[in-house]
Every structure is written in C-alpha cells, then in structure tokens.
Specification:
The structure holds 2 protein chains of 2 kinds.
Chain A (H helix, E strand, L loop, with lengths): L5 E11 L5 E12 L4 E5 L6 H9 L6 E6 L2 E2 L10 E4 L11 H11 L4 H14 L15 H13 L5 E5 L7 H18 L2 E6 L2 H7 L2 E6 L2 E6 L1 H6 L4 H6 L4 E7 L3 E3 L5 E3 L13 E7 L4 E3 L6 E10 L3 E8 L2 E8 L11 E6 L5 E3 L2
Helix pairs in contact in A: 2-3, 2-4, 3-4
Chain B lengths: L21 H23 L15 H7 L2 H33 L3 H12 L6 H14 L6 H26 L3 H8 L4 H30 L2 H6 L7 H11 L3 H30 L1
The chains are: A alpha+beta, B mainly alpha.
The complex binds adenosine-5'-triphosphate and magnesium ion.
The site of magnesium ion has 3 residues of chain A, from helix 1.
C-alpha cells in the first residue's frame, strides 16, 4: 500500500464533560486506508470509533491532526462538501419523505438533472433490493428495509468513501448474516472504499479486508483478520478477538512454567514473538489450540466443567490458580469427565507471548 | 385506519373511575362547560325580542346579524387583525425558536423564560402597558396599533407548539442532510421547516384563536374606527340584550368548530400519505 486513499494522521479529539473534565475520544490516531478496501474498525463501547467516523464525515472536527483524501486535506472543509457519505446507526432517514425522496435528496443537493436523479435512485434501490417500495414512508418499513434505504441513500451519491457506523447492530442475527454477505457483495461491485464500524469481533473477522482494533481512543493493532487473530500484539487484542486463555507463566531455563507446575518447551512457542529472559509473562493460547497429551503436559489440572457444544467439547481445567479453557473435537476418543485429572498442551507454534 | 382494532388490556396504577365521586364530578364539570353553549345556540333561534323568554322558532336574528353593517364591519376588523397578527407572530415565533437553537444553554433558558412569561402576566396589566406605550410613542389607536398589540401577545402562544415540536426533534436527520451535501439554507427548507410544520400550524391556529377571541387589549387599543367583534358584542350586551348576540355567538361557535375539524382532517391526511 503505497499511497493511502484515506489518510488519518495524528487525529486527536476530546470532549468536555459536564463535570468540567475532558474525555479523550481519540488519541493521536494514525491510519492509512487503501482505495477499494473493506476496512473495519473494531473496539469495545466508548473506544472512539464513532468519533473517528464523525471526524472523517465532518460532523465533528478533530482538535488536532489531519485527514487526507487522495492526498488533499478534507478535515477543514464542511461536511456537506466532502465526497464521503455515512450510513448512520439509527438510519437517520427523513421521516417526511418517501423512500425514493430520501434516496434522491443527496442527488438533488448536487443539482443533477431530473432524469439522471431518477435513474440513479432506481439503480440504488435495485442495488439494495428495494425496488417497488419507493413510495413508502420510512415508518411503513421494517428495520431491515429502513437499513437498506439508508444504504441506498448513501450509495446513490457514489462517494469515494462510505462510512458505516454499526449499521447492522439493530438487526436480528439472521438478517444480520444476510446483510453482511450483501454488504460484502455491494462493496465488491461498487469498488467504493468501505469503513465499517462494529464492536462485534466475529462480524469484523468475516467482513474486513483489514481490521483496526481500538481501545480507549488509540489504535492497538491494524492487520488482516488472520494476522490479528493469529498474532495479536497484546493481551487486549488477544482477548477481544476470539476467545483466548491469557496464562501467567514464569520464564524458566527449560521453558515456560505454567500455573500448576506444567512446563511448555520454548521451541513450541510461535516463532515471531518476543520472550523475556526471565521473570513472568503472559501467554495467549486459543481454546481450540490445545490437545490432550500423555507426557510433556503444560497444563496439568482437574477438569471442573465439561460443556458439549456440538462439534467441540469445552473443558474447563483448573491449573494452579487459573482456569484454562480448552476446546477439543468431540469426535476425539477419550473425553475427560468432571473431576478427572487431565493433561493438555498447546499445539506447536500456537502459544504466543503477549504484552499485558 | 386499520379495519381491525384490537383492544389492548390497560394497566393503570390508579383507576380513577373507582373513586366514588369521580363520575358525578365529571358529569357536573361537563354540564358546567357545555350547557351555557347549548343555551346560547338554543336561544339564538328564539323569536322573542327578550333573549331569555322562549316564544317560538325563528331565523330572524341570523338575518339581522347578516344584514347589520356594524357587526359585519367589526367582523371584518377582527379577521384582518387576526390574520395579520397570526402571520406576523408565527413568523417571529419561528425565528425566535430557530435563533435560540444557536444560543448557549444559559442564554436559551433565559430567552425562553422571557418569551414565555407574558402567558402568566394578567392581560389587563399588558393592556394598560401597551396603551401607555402606544400613547407615549404616539402610535395612533386603530388597526395598526391593534395588529402590533395582537402580534406581541400572540407570540408566546405561537411559540408554545413550535418549541414543543422542536424539542422533540432528533438531531439525526439534520446530520444526515449535512452528510448528503445540504447546506444550512437547504436544510432549513427541506428538513427543518417540513419537520416543524405541524408545530407551526398549531402555533398559527392558537395565535389566530387567541387574537380573534381577545377582548381586554382590543378594548383598550381599538379606538373608534377599529372595533373588533368581541368589543362590539360587549357593546351590544350593554345597550340592549337581544337574541342577535346569541346568533352571532352561535356563528362564532360554528366557525371555531369548523376550524378544529379542518385541523383534525388535515392531520389525518398528512399522516395517511
Ligand atoms: N458529543 C460528545 N460529548 C461528550 N463526550 C462524547 C461525545 N461523543 C463521544 N463522547 C465520548 O467519547 C468517547 C468515545 O465515544 P464514541 O462514541 O466515539 O465511542 P464508540 O467507540 O463509538 O462507542 P460505541 O461502540 O458505544 O458506539 C466516549 O467516552 C464518549 O463518552
Ligand atoms: Mg459508536
């Protein structure tokens, strides 16, 4: 990625609190998003995702920093003049306008000729599969349909960047899955850069070409879903993306000493992570990365819970003062029962050290 | 508009109709409110010169009202003043409401208070003040003075529903409009005004009703040439009470009922399309 399409440089945004203090919503955020990318911003509630989106859209102005689109600054031009459009979380449809009028609004603001507006509205409604509903009012639509109108309204403008703020969070699970697939398709077909905000890590993984993980106003990690899942830079990311055991281990001469006394040989660790010379550190191990072993066990402990979840069986094992979760294939031969002593080990190169 | 109406079970913390005196009180209040109106309508058809003695059915007082030049002139004055004052006060109230959106919180609270306070001040005080003010700055009493005075006291009434509507509006459509490329002027025309329209209409109707109905201020300000209908009716009653007063009042009643109905129908049409 040489030239960034959307370039966010050192953007900081604070809000005053009623008590007279300040909330730092964005703390020197740097981000480079490529043209035609499906970029996902992921993070827990209140971490600043919406604030960044609003700064890009121009609904909020950063305290400092720059936002560039195709090399020229947009952070100092008003929202209505930016070639960027937003799909709002609450849809924000115009209640007094029909579906077609909602979609046409943005085009009328550009003073396009009437027949072009008409054809672009029709095309946008077809893209989101709403043909035939163009004379309805927003209140006469289901939540999923309103969502599509919001999408069509923004897409009709043919923006350079489409910003989507948790657009699917109000939909039920089934509808949500369907819309995820459709958004991916729309993004491929239109080639528009999508910046998609969510706090659902699963959604982020299925949709994003790349993901930026936010925490407390800062970007913690940017990378492909695989990178972020497989090589989280710290405990926060490891914990936030998918399920992870964060295990406090002691670095010894033979390897890592687990709570409960088991030892993991240093060679079994993932290659590209830093290992402190001595002392304690955190190891991240995904539940599905454990296997049952007879010898050389890292986790030695008593099974305190066994949960059958279909394809996988989840074992909760008490090792020393920590409870570790392992997810084993349910077709495996022996399944330990509650109360059994069991021995587990992370498969080769699955365990990683992470900062806290 | 749905053909099927499902009755929802209602849960209330307190069921008022269980209180022993509730039903009786309700009926008494309704009778107290509407019986005088019914009597006015009833006696407007009385043939007798003496308003309160029924001798037979007649339309003659309606005929009298429709052919009395003084009454028609007073009606015309009332309508002119009410229409102009309604337009002016509604526009000013709208401007004030929109302008206050941009003020800092403390300033806004103060401004709302300032504009709302006249609702609580006795009208006689306002009327005396207005009269004194006009005499001081030498505004001649008459139509112009009436319109100015009515505009002033209608503003708080026009403001009430506009303000309520404004407070209930969500910021989201405005942000969406900006995002879609609308500048401030376009937002005002395409989003703000349409969304405020029910409030503006309600404000205008309220102002119109208040202006048409006003007696105290008009009595002070009108002067000889600009007598409004309420002032004229007052004069009629003082000189000789004829059933003509009842006929005139009945006509006014029909007029306001028609207006109410129109608003109701307008709202229904608006909602169903
Ligand atoms: N207008 C505002 N005034 C004051 N504080 C604000 C404002 N907008 C956001 N904040 C604060 O800034 C921080 C970041 O908010 P933001 O809405 O960007 O979070 P988010 O990541 O979108 O969260 P969520 O997932 O809950 O939508 C929060 O602490 C929030 O309270
Ligand atoms: Mg948000």
């Amino acid at each position: 990625m040489t030239d960034a399409h959307l370039d966010i440089r050192q953007v900081t945004k604070t809000f005053p609190t009623p008590e007279g203090g300040v909330v730092v919503a964005l703390d020197r955020v740097d981000l480079a998003i490529a043209e035609g990318e499906f970029f996902v911003m992921l993070g827990p509630s209140g971490c600043g995702k919406t604030s960044l989106l609003r700064c890009i859209a121009g609904l909020e102005y950063p305290d400092s920093g720059e936002i560039l689109l195709d090399g020229s600054r947009i952070d100092d031009i008003p929202a209505y003049a930016r070639p960027v459009n937003t799909v709002f979380q609450s849809y924000a449809l115009f209640p007094h306008m029909s579906v077609a009028q909602n979609v046409a609004f943005g085009l009328e603001m550009e003073r396009l000729p009437k027949n072009e507006i008409k054809s672009r509205v029709a095309a946008a409604l077809e893209q989101v599969k709403l043909t035939g509903l163009d004379r309805r009012k927003p209140t006469q639509l289901s939540g999923g349909q309103q969502q599509r109108v919001a999408l069509a309204r923004a897409l009709a403008k043919q923006p350079k960047v489409l910003l989507l703020d948790e657009p699917l969070s109000a939909l039920d699970l089934k509808l949500r899955r369907g819309m995820q697939v459709e958004l991916k398709r729309l993004q491929r077909e239109t080639g528009i850069t999508f910046v998609f905000v969510t706090h659902d890590q699963e959604e982020a993984m299925t949709m994003g070409d790349r993901i930026a993980v936010f925490n407390e106003g800062k970007i913690v990690q940017v990378g492909s879903p695989q990178e972020i899942y497989r090589r989280p830079v710290n405990g926060f990311v490891a914990d936030f993306i998918g399920e992870t055991n964060l295990i406090k281990v002691t670095v010894g001469s033979g390897g890592f000493i687990f709570p409960g006394g088991g030892v993991l040989a240093r060679e079994l660790l993932a290659e590209d992570c830093e290992v402190p010379a001595a002392g304690e550190c955190l190891l991240a191990v995904r539940p599905e990365d454990f296997e049952l072993v007879d010898t050389d066990a890292a986790v030695v402990g008593e099974v305190v819970d066994v949960i059958f979840t279909g394809g996988l069986i989840r074992l909760h094992v008490r090792a020393g003062d920590q409870e570790i979760v392992a997810a084993l294939p349910s077709h495996g031969a022996v399944v330990p029962a509650v109360g059994d002593q069991t021995r587990l080990r992370p498969i080769t190169k699955a365990a990683r050290t992470v900062g806290s | 508009m749905s053909p099927v109406t499902t009755s929802r079970p209602r849960r209330r913390l307190v069921n008022l109709s269980n209180f022993p005196l509730f039903r009786g009180t309700s009926i008494a209040v309704l009778v107290g409110m509407y019986l005088p109106l019914l009597l006015v309508v009833f006696y407007s058809f009385n043939q007798n010169r003496l308003a309160q003695i029924w001798t037979g059915f007649s339309f003659k007082w309606y005929d009298f009202v429709f052919h009395n030049d003084d009454i028609l002139r007073a009606l015309k004055n009332s309508l002119i003043v009410a229409v102009v004052a309604t337009i002016l006060s509604t526009l000013l109230a709208l401007g004030a409401a929109l302008g206050m959106l941009r003020m800092a919180r403390s300033g806004r609270v103060f401004a709302w208070g300032l504009l709302g306070a006249p609702l609580l001040i006795p009208e006689i005080v306002l009327a005396v003040g207005t009269l004194g003010f006009f005499l001081t700055i030498k505004v001649p009493l008459g139509h112009v003075a009436l319109i100015l005075a009515h505009t002033a006291f209608c503003i708080p009434f026009a403001l009430l529903p506009i303000r309520a509507r404004l407070a209930g509006l969500d910021a989201a459509p405005f942000e969406a409009a900006t995002d879609l490329g609308a500048n401030e002027w376009q937002i005002l025309r395409r989003i703000t005004l349409p969304l405020l329209a029910p409030g503006i209409l309600a404000g205008a109707l309220l102002a119109f009703a208040i202006s048409l109905d006003d007696f105290i201020t008009s009595f002070f300000i009108a002067g000889p040439g600009a007598t409004t209908l309420p002032v004229y009716i007052f004069g009629m009653i003082r000189s000789n009470v004829t059933p003509a007063v009842n006929a005139l009042s009945t006509l006014l009643l029909i007029f306001s009922a028609t207006m109410l109905l129109a608003v109701y129908l307008l709202n229904r049409i608006r909602r169903s399309d």
